[in-house]
Amino acid sequence: LLYMHNKYTTMESKIIFALDVYDYNTAVDLARTVGEKVFAIKINWPVILENGIKIVRDLSKYANIICDFKLADIDNTVSMITTKVKEYGGYGIISHSFTGLNSLKAVVKSAGNMKVFSVVSMSQESYLDNITEELIKISMEAGVYGLVAPGNRPYYLKKVKELSEGLKIISPGVGAQGGDIVNAMLLGSDYVIIGRSIYNSPDPLETLEGFSSSINNKLNK
Ligand code: 3DU
Q1: Ligand 1 pocket check: which of 47, 49, 66, 123 to mutate, most ligand atoms within 8 Å of Cβ?
Q2: Phi/psi of residue 13, each to 5°?
Q3: What spacing in Å lies between the alpha carbon of 193 and ligand 1's midpoint?
Q4: Residue 141 φ then ψ, to 5°
Q5: Active site residue 137
Q6: Rounded Cα–Cα distance for residues 67 and 18 (Å)
Q7: How many angstroms separate the CA atoms of 201 and 192, rounded?
Q8: CA 97 to CA 132: how far, in whole Å?
């Protein structure tokens, strides 16, 4: 109760932890350790291929789970996958947008109240760099909740921020891939996605808290 009433301690975490491991116990231990201190935990194919979709439910005990499945298929298939993620308690799902409006709309429809994020630019050069503006338009028209844009490529992050009013931006590329957390937040990321820098650290919680305080120190002045 105290916590809820103190506006200085209710500062919401701006970090999404990318939990890219295979081992079930390692995944659950990490989720338990950092779950309360992050905005969400993002899982990707490595976790799912080893453990199956049921792990989404298990990890959801500790944090909001965003499934980074980078959907890129026809409407029926992406709907089927999205429906499964929802059934297992996912908080969010990440889809590609280059597959076009029809496919992305199918994700949004099947997602119901799950948050849909679409990829409009990657943390490494890709063909998407030629079509980022169009991808933002498609994403907005499909009604996604947020966009994935790189925290380590300022030009593209700025561009996405400028062209995507009202959408949340989540940004990989911070830490192991060279991006700086404060720069990313200043350029428009709402949440930064950090994986290896945290889970490969000898003390993941301490490393996470270091990232959080670097944001709080620089941005809340
Ligand atoms: O580089 P890290 O270990 O901090 O992890 C970044 C995560 O974000 C990882 O799951 C990766 O698959 C995902 N991601 C990117 O790194 C870059 C993108 O453009 C999109 C997703």
Answers
A1: 123
A2: -65, 145
A3: 7
A4: -65, -35
A5: no
A6: 10
A7: 17
A8: 10
d(Cα 157, Cα 138) in Å, to the nearest integer?
17
Per-residue pLDDT of the chain (221 residues; tens, 9 = 90+): 344 433 333 468 999 999 999 999 999 999 999 999 999 999 999 999 999 999 999 999 999 999 999 999 999 999 999 999 999 999 999 999 999 999 999 999 999 999 999 999 999 999 999 999 999 999 999 999 999 999 999 999 999 999 999 999 999 999 999 999 999 999 999 999 999 999 999 999 999 999 999 998 887 66
Decide the pairing of beta strands 115-119 and 15-18.
Answer: unpaired
Q: ipTM of this model?
A: 0.99
- Is the Cα dihedral 16, 22, 27, 29 positive or negative? negative
